[in-house]
Structures are given as C-alpha cells and as structure tokens.
Amino acid sequence: MAQRVPIAIGLTAAGAAGYYLYAAGGSPKVAQKEAEHDAARFGGSNQKSAEKKAELWAEKAGKELDHAGKTLDHAADEARARLNQADAKLDNLRQDASKKISEVGKDTKEELHQTIDNFDKTAIRKTVEAKNGISSWFGFGGSK
C-alpha cells in the first residue's frame, strides 16, 4: 500500500496539470498562471474560513468565560451572605451566653450572700446561746 501512495500523488498531479493545460488551450504559461490563481483563491478562502472559525470560537469561548465568571461571582456572593448570616447567629449566641452567664453569676452571688447571712445569723444565735449557757453556770444569767 505504501508503494501506491507516490503513484497516486503523481497521477493526481498529472491529472491536474492536464486539466489546466486543456483549460488554457495548450499554453503552459496560461495554465501555470491559472493554477497559481486557483491555488491562491483556494488557500485564501481556507484561510478566511479558518479565521472566521477562530473568531467564532473566540467569541463562544468569551461568552462561556463570561458565564463562568458570573456563576463564580454569584457563588462567591452567596457564600459571603451565608458567612454573614452565620456570623450574626454566632454573635447572637455569644450575647445570649454572656447574658446567661451574667444571670447565673448574679444568682450564684445572691445565693452565696444569702448563705453567708444565714451562717452569720446562726453563728450569732449560737454564740448568744453559748454565752447564756456559760453565764448560767456561774449564776449570772437565767434562761433566754
């Protein structure tokens, strides 16, 4: 098969040369100019077509990039909004916890003062009772 490729190329070139010679009326110079003109026209149209396709692809790629950028911006905005919401919730929870801690601290402080007051009252009462009891041993006092 590889041996047939050069033969096929050669026959194609000979056929093209024969076509241009026939179309030029047998004049090799006219045939050469006609072949060059067709080659330039064919090459130019393919180049223009390739340029047109490249422009279309570039335009399509630009639109896709714009869409992707907008999607990314939207996702970033949504993430920022969610973070702000979470931050606000955390701030509210922190404030609530601070209030509860203050309330518990206040309640604990009140309970502590109440316990100390009760202890003081009990200690004073017991001291008075003990004093009266000792005084009664020596005959200085009576019952309460």
Average pLDDT, to the nearest integer? 83
| Topology as a string of helices (H) and strands (E) | HH
Please state the structural category. Answer: mainly alpha
Weakly predicted, low-confidence segments: none
H/I helix tally? 2
User: Mind telling me the C-alpha Rg?
Assistant: 54 Å
Strand content: under 5%
What is the first-to-last residue Cα distance? 136 Å
Shape by Cα distribution: rod-shaped
Number of strands: 0
Question: What profile does the largest beta sheet have?
Answer: none
Helical fraction:
over 70%
Task: Characterize the structure shown.
The chain starts with a helix and ends in a 7-residue tail after the last helix. 1% of the residues are buried. The chain has helices at 4-23, 28-137. The protein is mainly alpha-helical and 144 residues long. Helix content is 90%, strand content 0%. The model has no long low-confidence stretch (mean pLDDT 83). It is built from two helices and no strands.
In brief:
By secondary structure, the chain is mostly helical. It is 90% helix and 0% strand.
Task: List the defining traits of the structure above.
single chain, 144 residues, mainly alpha, 2 helices
Write the layout of secondary structure elements.
Layout: H1 4-23, H2 28-137
